[in-house]
Automatic annotation (TrEMBL):
Gene3D superfamilies: 1.20.58.1480, LON domain-like, Zinc/RING finger domain, C3HC4 (zinc finger). Residues 1-16 have a biased composition (Polar residues). Keywords: Hydrolase, Metal-binding, Protease, Zinc, Zinc-finger. This is ATP-dependent protease. GO terms for biological process: proteolysis.
Length: 506
């Protein structure tokens, strides 16, 4: 603990037109037809051009007004944000509503997970501008578009027999070329300034390359376009669906550019799951909270100079393996396998080479292997992420829907097992405890401590980190938080501390 500088007084969609219904995987699945191109901007429910396109978590889209009837979701208290208490059966989960574009959906969604699709809205506008104003002779694109606009072409209708076109006819000619060019102008990623690859749409409705979103989430939780909170798991892998229509559009209109980008990306330094990072074996640090360090050991002075020179200014903080316990792949390593990635917020070099560092806790990791370089440990790390909000909500619903044993059913019972409590109740237990402790002028809540670490967080996702940083409980107990993968799990741990501490006093 010798390198810790504590500022606190403690340690730190069948139609009549349909002549030959085709199975989803038709013979020309790889080329684009005028019909399938227009279908991309058609709502599966009302069959009109999309009006205020609503992005669904399954990567599909329909008009905002075409949202199926909603029902109230019960026994879910976290996250208690707008729209999360309403759910609906996704239109795209109906059997038969399948597309070459891949329209399937696993089932139910939460209204809070749906939102505006900004890019799809622009794409619909480009189609209308390119095809909607045509007078006189109409090509197949304009003809099909007009039918859609007039509500005369069902979404699933694949062949437009009387127009003399069918689903296999590839669009061509100046109208198509102009449309293509206009679309291309809307399809650049605002992060890498190239054609969007594997389009992922954020909850705020902005679309970027999947890889670009991953890079952003690595160091921030704000949308690069609108600066709204992303509310996405830091691991984009748990965000299973790309924006299906945008993906189909890009893959079919610009296949060569997509192929070139994929090839180029293979050689790029992508955000990989694993990274090598210098490890500072010293103390327990937690995400979102600062760690104050006083660096004087020669090897760590050297390490900090390198970390500062790297530009990323990140290193891993791990604590000592005091009990010499086995640490996964590492065996009996001198340090614990779970740690926190810190980003240096402030670095002050003292004239004698020592330094004062303020590190901000980012993500958590597990060290999978390590070696010593220049006197300090360098570890291969794997990021530890929380499950998706949907999984988080399912967990709470499942746990709190169980029958409570009659002997424990006493409503107000302070003995109700934590597993049966709502996530909100678990959070409130902690917040109330802090309030009481403050009234009692507990030393660990000294104004100087609050000045350094901030007041009690109102976000249940952050609260446990804050509490662990301040509350005088054993390091072993605090360490348990680092490997958790849900907010609920962490709040159960902190509620457990509260029970124990309150129990011991009464
Ligand atoms: Zn609609
Ligand atoms: Zn869906
Ligand atoms: Zn990009
Ligand atoms: Zn945004």
């Amino acid at each position: 603990m010798e390198n810790v500088q504590s500022p606190a007084p403690h340690e730190s969609n069948a139609s009549e037109l349909q002549a030959h219904p085709q199975p989803p995987s038709s013979h020309h699945s790889s080329s684009l037809s005028a019909r399938s191109l227009i279908r991309l901007i058609q709502c599966p429910r009302c069959s009109l051009p999309l009006h205020s396109p609503l992005r669904l978590p399954c990567g599909n889209t329909h008009c905002r007004e075409c949202l199926p009837p909603t029902k109230t979701r019960t026994k879910i208290t976290y996250p208690a944000t707008e729209g999360r208490d309403k759910g609906f059966e996704c239109y795209w989960s109906e059997p038969g509503l399948r597309l070459k574009e891949g329209g399937e959906c696993p089932g139910e969604h939460c209204v809070g997970d749906c939102g505006v699709d900004v890019l799809m809205g622009k794409v619909v506008g480009v189609f209308d501008e390119g095809l909607g104003v045509a007078n006189g002779e109409k090509g197949s694109l304009e003809g099909i578009y007009e039918l859609v606009k007039d509500g005369k072409l069902d979404y699933t209708a694949s062949e437009v027999a009387y127009l003399g076109t069918d689903d296999s006819e590839e669009p061509e000619g100046p109208v198509f070329e102009n449309l293509k060019e206009a679309l291309r102008g809307e399809l650049d990623c605002h992060l890498c300034y190239s054609l969007i690859l594997d389009p992922l749409t954020t909850p705020c409705g902005h679309t970027f390359c999947r890889q670009c979103v991953a890079s952003v989430l690595y160091h921030s939780d704000l949308c690069p376009t609108c600066r709204r909170k992303l509310n996405m798991p830091s691991n984009v892998k748990s965000e299973p669906y790309n924006n299906k229509r945008i993906a189909y559009l890009i893959d079919n209109l610009f296949p060569d550019q997509v192929a070139a980008r994929r090839e180029a990306m293979d050689g790029e330094d992508t955000v990989s799951e694993e990274k090598d990072i210098p490890l500072f074996v010293c103390t327990l640090s937690f995400p979102t909270v600062p760690t104050f360090l006083h660096i004087y050991e020669r090897r760590y002075r050297h390490m900090m100079r390198r970390v500062m020179a790297s530009g990323e200014r990140k290193f891993g903080m791990v604590t000592y393996n005091r009990g010499n316990r086995p640490q996964g792949n590492l065996g009996r390593a001198p340090f614990m396998q779970y740690g926190t990635l810190l980003t240096i917020d402030r670095f002050e070099l003292l004239p004698d080479g020592r330094s004062l560092v303020i590190g901000r806790g980012d993500s958590r990791f597990r060290v999978t292997k390590s070696e010593i370089q220049d006197g300090y440990h360098v570890g291969r790390i794997e990021r530890i992420d929380d499950v998706s909000l949907t999984e988080e909500e399912n967990m709470e619903f499942t746990e709190t829907s169980r029958e409570v044993d009659a002997s424990l059913a006493d409503e107000d019972s302070k003995d109700l097992p934590l597993d049966y409590m709502s996530t909100q109740q678990l959070f409130e237990m902690g917040v109330n405890f802090v309030r009481n402790q403050r009234n009692l002028r507990a030393g660990w809540l000294h104004p100087r401590v609050l000045m350094a670490y901030g007041d009690v967080p109102s976000d249940p996702a952050i609260f446990p980190w804050w509490l662990a940083n301040l509350l005088p409980v054993s390091e072993d107990e605090k360490y348990k938080l680092l490997s958790t993968t849900s907010v609920r799990e962490r709040l159960k741990i902190t509620a457990g501390w509260v029970r124990k501490l309150e129990g011991s006093r009464s």
